[in-house]
Design brief:
By secondary structure, the chain is mainly beta. It contains three helices and eleven strands.
Length: 174
Amino acid sequence: MYQRLALSPEEDELSSGPCTNPVGMVSCSSKNCRNFESCPNPVTRYLRSKSLTHNLVPRESRIGWGLNSNVDIDCGEIITEYIGEFSSEARDLKYSFKITDTLFLSALVKGNSARFINHACKPNSRAELWSVDGFMRVFIFAERLIPKSTFITLKYGNEYCFQGGCQCDSCYSK
């Protein structure tokens, strides 16, 4: 389910100063962070405490299914992890997350509720690729305060807008 990354010697050894792992989008562990138990690294905190997980609910939207939360989500918080199977091709355009030109994360079969996050040209969240114990994982972060019952959105990219044009709420209301 996760794609293995090669760790550099620097990532494999304990840091001697303040934690710099978040700068490199690397999750902390007892192997690479002296302050692991109290480290403020957002991905490490998220993985250690499932109490940070938001109550995410798929529900119908104007353009199909969407995803929203039953609680307010603060700017910078991790909303969820995008889970799926890595492959060298997009298995399903609807639920495939493009990592590189030759690597995709498909949530069609082994995905979670993050696959219901819809596109928006002005999204309220962003996706970040992080290294967790040497494996690539995708986390969704809030770009701004997301009020309760608001659909969570990501910018899919220009290739997503089909022949009829973009159908996100920002574009549809023009």
